[in-house]
Amino acid sequence: MQRVILSLRTKLILSFLAVIIVGGLISLIIGSRLVRQTLIAQAQLKVKHDLASAWMVFNEKLNDIRQIVALTASRESIAEALKRGDTSLLQRYLNRVRIDFGLDILTLTDSSGKVIVRTRNPQVIGDDQSRDELVRLALKGAIVAYPQIITGENLRLEGEDLAAQAFMELIPTPRAFPRTQNFESSGLVLKAAAAVQDEGHRPVGVLYGAILLNRNYEIVDRIKEIVFKGEKYKGRDVGTATIFLHDLRISTNVRNEKGERAIGTLLSAEVKKAVLDEGKAWIDRAFVVTDWYITAYEPIKNVEGKIIGILYVGMLEKPYIDTANRLMLTFTAMASLCVIFLLVILYFSTTQIIRPLQKMVVATQEIARGDLSHKVEINSRDELGILAASFNEMIDQLRRANEELVEWGRTLEKKVEERTRELTEMQTKLLQSEKLASLGKLAAGVAHEINNPLGAILIYSHLLLEETPKNTPAYENLRKIVKETSRCKDIVKGLLEFARPKEPEMVPTDINETVDRALSLVEKQALFQNITIKKEYGQLPRIIADPSQLQQVFMNIIINAAEAMDGRGTLTIRTSLDSDKEKIKIAFTDTGHGIRPEDMPRLFEPFFTTKEVGKGTGLGLAISYSIIQKHQGTIEVESRVGQGSTFTVILPLRRESTDDRKSPDSNN
User: What is the DSSP string of 510-529?
Assistant: First the structure.
């Protein structure tokens, strides 16, 4: 038999395909288990929390009964009527309380436990309830409320209708533990008892009240409403709640095959063994009547700690199983598509493996013809790759030499461009400086020429304003002329100061005193009434400076800070020496709205302002910066939008010499 010879490409594809299929099957099996376990674990965690919510509803109802009984028993009129033996009054009053608060049972005994008033069945009295544990504890002065089982005989004492409500015939249930009797006559109640006391706080009787849970769906339906929000899956309720009397469903919203409440059905045997027999909580999947649920069961105990029933919440398992199945179908479909996609990739990738062999043949032919520029593109590290690398190394050496020459040319061109750009920027700055100098001279001349006419306009407009009655339209127009003319004069004054600032008169100066003088000139203004000023002055030596010019700088910064805070906030002024003790720092920190990053580079430009039109000239910070520069200092600004700004004036420290300390008049 002739042996089948497979091509190299076929061998590679079959090998990869086997690995992909085996790996995919293992991943699907493990993934399916993980998805199911994860979903079920999440459902169990949820149902555990749901059970805690169910207990809250259950205990809330029990506490309501306790409060009703306790408050009713504490009424003085009950004790007085009991002492008088006025049973007709007690019957009427207690019956109204029972009806108003929806109690099934409300009964009053004397101090020995003998029933004297039974509101639901008033003809039956005189029986002894002292053997009841709750009544016995209440006679000792306690207020108690617990679940309790009442026999059918005792229920008939409270009312034949209650005995009928409690009576249930057992319905055969799959997976349930068999019972010897096929009916249940006892009832599970939420019961509370409290002592009726006289003026000396001595028990003269006991009042107990209860609601019967058999066929009472208030608690389970409220649990379903609060916890599960009425959620449905394929027409069925997702969440259910049940109250068991031992292993018998007496109150539930679990439905049977007919869609009716599954009253009279029994608990599954495995859950009964764990919860009723062993007293453990059960949080796991369980078969409930007709279907599997993810469930949580916990025992209900009476006042003596005995297990008398079970509280249950559960969710249909099917939605989670269906979700897991859909996920796995999706994963399977995706895996199948991936296999097809990988086969296509394998086809082309094997082509990449075969192609180098073909290229080696072509390369040897080209080299044989003397074409040394030919390059073999093989990325493998086998013998063929080593051979191709040796061939390509020779070509690479020539290529690298050429690339180095090209790179040197690019570097030289880049350096020429950078130098040209620097020269252009320097020329632009020089032209700008010349323009600003010419503009300053022109501005100073123009300001000087218009200053006198502005003064005349201001004087005559003031005179006209004083002569014009305030109730005429012309008065308001003249007032605006005066205001705007004054603003023009301020702008001209600032322009003159900026264009031709006077040289500072250097004298020994105390910075802290200078800051205080600046503050004293502005802090009485209305703008500062709601601003808190904090002073943190350091011990500073006197320096040689012009105090009046520095005072002008400090006033400009302080006023700007107050306006940035809209007249409400905290201004902190801090003076200190730097770490080298060569400079003095005066920091003004406000809690205002801050400065936008795009405005920071233009803060000290003439006529730049962020204030509203008519509320600033834009020269204050420019003049201040010019003054500080003449003092060989600088101004630094830090700001965060919405948090505030800090302006720091930095001045060189020139200690006062002996000659500096002499007053200007010392030679006279």
Answer: -HHHHHHHHHHHHTTSGGGT
Instruction: Write the CB contacts of 224 (distance below 8 Å, at least 6 apart in sequence).
Output: 230, 237, 239, 240, 241, 253
CA–CA dist 486, 299 (Å, integer):
90
Measured CA angle at 372 (ends 366, 376), to 5 deg:
65
pLDDT of residue 286: 76
Q: What is the DSSP string of 48-60?
A: HHHHHHHHHHHHH
Domains (range + CATH), the chain: 1-358 (3.30.450.20), 407-500 (1.10.287), 501-652 (3.30.565.10)
Quote the CA–CA distance of 422 and 389 in Å, as a whole number.
46
Q: Phi first, then psi: what are they for 232, rounded to 5°?
A: -125, 155
In three-state form (DSSP H/G/I as H, E/B as E, the rest C), the secondary structure along 274-343 is HHHHCCCCEEEEEEECCEEEEEEEEEEECCCCCEEEEEEEEEECHHHHHHHHHHHHHHHHHHHHHHHHHH
DSSP 191: E
Query: Residue 190 pairs with which residues in a beta bridge?
Result: 147, 211
Using an 8 Å Cβ cutoff, are 230 and 101 in contact? no
pLDDT of residue 663: 40
In the numeric block, the tokens 């000239």 are attached to 617
How far does CA 157 lie from the centroid of its chain? 59
CA-to-CA distance for 128 and 116, rounded, in angstroms? 10
Give the Cα-Cα-Cα angle 133, 134, 135 (nearest 5 degrees).
Answer: 90
Q: Which residue from 119, 78, 128 is spatially nearest to 95, judged by alpha carbons?
A: 119
For residue 441 the two structure tokens come to 């001279």
Distance of CA 612 to the CA centre of its chain: 38
Whether the model clears a pTM of 0.85, i.e. scores above it, the answer is no
Report the C-alpha gap between 116 and 130 in whole angstroms: 13
Amino acid symbol at 593: H
Residues of the chain short of pLDDT 70, as ranges, are: 1-9, 12, 28, 31-32, 35-37, 39, 324, 350, 352-388, 391, 394-403, 405-406, 425-426, 428-449, 451-452, 487, 489-502, 607, 610-618, 654-668
Query: How far apart are alpha carbons 104 and 115 in whole angstroms?
Result: 16
Confirm if 172 and 191 have CB atoms less than 8 A apart: no
Asked if residues 203 and 281 have their Cβ atoms less than 8 Å apart, the reply is: no
Cα 349 to chain centroid distance, Å, stands at 49
Starting at the earlier edge strand, list the strands of the sheet with 291-301: 248-252, 239-245, 307-316, 291-301, 282-288
Bin 441: left if φ > 0, else alpha if -120 < ψ < 50, else beta: alpha
Residue 661 has a pLDDT of: 40
On whether the CB atoms of residues 314 and 288 are closer than 8 A, the answer is yes
**Contact assessment for residue 65 and residue 191, using Cβ atoms and an 8 Å cutoff:** yes
Cα–Cα distance between 102 and 211 in angstroms, integer?
Answer: 8
Amino acid at 190: L
- pLDDT attached to residue 289: 74
Structure tokens at 210: 């209860």
Question: DSSP letters along 88-135, please?
Answer: HHHHHHHHHHHHHTT-SEEEEEETTSBEEEESSSTT----B-TTSHHH
What does the block give as tokens for 421? 């750009």
